[in-house]
Amino acid sequence: MSADLTKLVTDLAQRARAASLVLATAPTAAKNAALARLAVLLDSRMLPASTDALLTANQQDLAAARENQLTGAQIDRLTLSAPRIAQMAEGVRQVAALPDPVGEELERTVRPNGLEIRKIRVPIGVIGIIYEARPNVTVDCAGLCLKSGNAAILRGGKESFHTNTALAALIAQALAQAGLPADAVQLIPTTDRAALTTLLKLDTLVHCIIPRGGESLIRFVAENSTIPVIKHFKGVCFVYVDRDADPDMAERIVLNAKVQRPGVCNAAEQLLVHAGAADALLPRLARALLAKKVELRCDPASAAILKKHQLAGRAAQPADFSTEFLDLIMGVRVTPSLDDAIATINRDSSAHTDAIVTRDAAAARRFLAGVDSAVVLWNASTRFNDGFEFGLGAEIGISTDRLHARGPMGLRELCSYKYVVTGSGQVRG
Amino acid sequence: MSADLTKLVTDLAQRARAASLVLATAPTAAKNAALARLAVLLDSRMLPASTDALLTANQQDLAAARENQLTGAQIDRLTLSAPRIAQMAEGVRQVAALPDPVGEELERTVRPNGLEIRKIRVPIGVIGIIYEARPNVTVDCAGLCLKSGNAAILRGGKESFHTNTALAALIAQALAQAGLPADAVQLIPTTDRAALTTLLKLDTLVHCIIPRGGESLIRFVAENSTIPVIKHFKGVCFVYVDRDADPDMAERIVLNAKVQRPGVCNAAEQLLVHAGAADALLPRLARALLAKKVELRCDPASAAILKKHQLAGRAAQPADFSTEFLDLIMGVRVTPSLDDAIATINRDSSAHTDAIVTRDAAAARRFLAGVDSAVVLWNASTRFNDGFEFGLGAEIGISTDRLHARGPMGLRELCSYKYVVTGSGQVRG
Hints:
2 copies of one chain form a homodimer.
Chain A: H1 2-24, H2 28-42, H3 48-67, H4 72-78, H5 82-97, E1 105-110, E2 116-123, E3 126-131, H6 136-147, E4 151-155, H7 161-177, E5 185-187, H8 193-199, E6 208-212, H9 215-224, E7 237-241, H10 247-259, E8 268-274, H11 275-291, E9 295-298, H12 300-308, E10 314-315, E11 329-335, H13 338-348, E12 353-357, H14 361-370, E13 375-380, E14 397-399, E15 407-409, E16 415-426
Parallel strand pairs in A: 3-4, 3-6, 4-5, 7-8, 7-12, 8-11, 9-10, 9-11, 12-13
Antiparallel strand pairs in A: 1-2, 2-16, 14-15
Helix pairs in contact in A: 1-8, 2-5, 2-7, 3-7, 5-6, 10-11, 13-14
């Protein structure tokens, strides 16, 4: 059985590698045709039969989900509906409309010996995407990999296995109808953990692994992969309100960063307030957060200020100050100085997204240079760390790694480069 | 003992991380001052006492090397001399003279909501360098990491342990004298394998591992590291002589690629000749290679041609066609077509450096697009895949990975980037 599984995954990866070599030089028009065809196959207004097949597969997953007593929220994430499928189709059309990143000349130099050296953007090759329940990830990732000329190996969660299988069949059909290899996007046809572990060791066939999901899945992937992984474990994002912050702006940004969508990685989890502004500002910020039902977990200094104003704040545990709550909870601390704020963030944040609110340009510059995070913001909400907000047109994830891609990753971040050297018979002396 | 070792390596990495935050915003002048000081400390004409200490440490390693019966070549690689030390000093001065890659603005966009998004080049952070005998690597890597604003953790081979320790002491002295943290470059003070394994798991403190050395060392590192690794395992480089190759140029390039320095990763190991040119060209190429004492390991087609001309070629084993010989040996095959040549290279090369020799521009374009290697060349020797030859001014290695850096890696490839976002109170709706 285990030998069979190894063979199954290895064969699949070999087919992906072969497909990737075709895809790497495929014309933009062919890739866009496959995406357009996929959008048609998904769109219930155009092909009700294929949508029906998808909904039937989804019903199988939903029945299993109810049997396994998944939570309401989990079942909701899993559920496909005609509008949700239409949304997937629209996403695919948007990716088709983006410029093709492949083939762009990034640099060109001519050396004194006459060699012309060009640095050209090319696909990475074969990308493995490891993800959890949401079935739209199947279509999003397939579309982004295809547009950037990469073959994709998808390994979704077991909760959405039937839905993913049906989606993968539509993707293969779209590829074939556009004259591209159907093996360019393949779903691993089992959710056996051993298949995943096998995949993560195929470093001669697969060039990059992108895990998307909870921290434990991502840690499992990072620890077991001999293939390079691009990831972020979590988003413990800070808003630092400086001594010289505009009070209205501070309230607006803290509130937006915390409550606009608390369950996502770029939501703020931690509030730092400069001691020189805490007496004046913290009660106002706390009042606004409490009005939105945010629980405040406070250090002694912030707790004392809140108490003076009869505002509710509970004493924090040390771990609260580096926790990703993904909920209406916020760590609150008073910091004696800008330098201390920078050091605190470099120690306790997840280096994902951190913001300063201040009118003091010199303080902002020190913060932006000194905070060692993927995205640092001055007078703007942490919620802006996002591929669409950055104008990338799409997003396959956000990286807190420092190699290859950092911050939001779009089509260009799914590419590598190669050097193309043109000579006239040069040899080395 | 093992707990002690874990603590030793972890403490060292924590100091490196702290130093990296200082180094990340250190002015160019301070980094250059440290490099200039290091060059003085190394230069025997200026400070004979510090050179003497270095040579004494080197003598200890050499005595052990003789006792352990290392080969003459190994002992030579290990040996320091006044000219070799002067060469190290000169290398450090050259790195000081290169432009500082840190702080460069790579992109700037202003979004419709007024947010200004700048992509700025920043150091990676803490880089671990794992290498083998040559002690000059200690100084080269320290210099490149320092100039690019990264803290370095060095782990050299046991053969050069005393020499490396003496070099690391000079580097620490130079850093301190320039007002930079001495912990910015640290040598792991033991060659116990367990210390290396511990280091490779410290993924919250160390951001990148660069192994340099033989394939088995690099595989060990890649398999045991939870930190991203940039590497190349080996260089199995091809020269493909197309049907329409200029005969003089083909001979010159094949000869240079194979024999100019056969022990390096960008030397050619494999020769492919188009069937349409093999009768006319292969005897000439073989004669030139044999005159330089290159052993030819031939497929049946090339063997038959050589035999017709009474030229020596032995029958190849299948493994010969994907082997890195690092010696005066070459695999030789006749290929029926350009497409077959491209497929052969994509299957058997190590995706490091592959060249085509042809006068046919259309064939060249297909080769350059279709061969999926870090560096592809048209009418030039594979030996040009090199940081200095590419004009990078320095080289810390050559990558065959597809993430982050591919091909020769200089100072810019030792950097990451961050996004710096400036707003005026923007929040997400």
